[in-house]
Specification:
10 helices; globular; mainly alpha
């Protein structure tokens, strides 16, 4: 990471390091966030590197969310954090912590960016292929998300949720 000669190599090293068991993973992420904060594209790429399949992915994303450098209303930043996370089903749907973060994120982002939020809902597109137990968990998650999304404040997201829930009823 520290000797990388290109952004691609540095971010690849960062992603691998965040997936390791090194004690200073969060410190390295904070270092890269600070380094890239004044460069929008570099900052988005840093966020995307943190949205990996590491066991601590959700804690990294919460750290980024809480950072004064993160701006949810910036589409690129929101896309790099939330959409990339949602598409990582191994974490977003297959872990309790991931499902919790997914629900919170969709509810929060629905008021800010309907396009990215409806993209996040595509994580449920393979629900019909899941085992019944997992489908039940996902239906409960969808119901919880639907309760938190206002039809008045976020009509497109609300309507998409209703369509998914109708299509997945058994």
């Amino acid at each position: 990471y520290h000797t990388a000669e290109s952004a691609t190599v540095r971010l690849s090293a960062l992603s691998l390091y965040l997936s390791s068991s090194a004690a200073d993973r969060r410190e390295l992420l904070a270092e890269e966030l600070a380094r890239s904060a004044s460069h929008p594209l570099a900052f988005e790429n840093c966020i995307a590197a943190a949205a990996n399949t590491a066991r601590d992915t959700v804690s990294y994303l919460r750290m980024i969310e809480e950072s004064p450098m993160f701006h949810i209303e910036q589409a690129g930043e929101a896309r790099a954090l939330y959409l990339r996370f949602a598409q990582n089903r191994k974490v977003s749907l297959e872990t309790e912590e991931g499902r919790e973060f997914l629900a919170e994120s969709i509810i929060r982002l629905a008021k800010v960016n309907a396009y990215i939020t409806t993209g996040m809902l595509s994580v449920f597109s393979h629900m019909h292929e899941a085992e019944e137990t997992e489908r039940a968990v996902q239906r409960n998650l969808l119901s919880r998300i639907a309760e938190g999304v206002s039809a008045e404040e976020s009509p497109a997201v609300y309507q998409t949720l209703q369509q998914i829930m109708t299509a997945t009823k058994e």
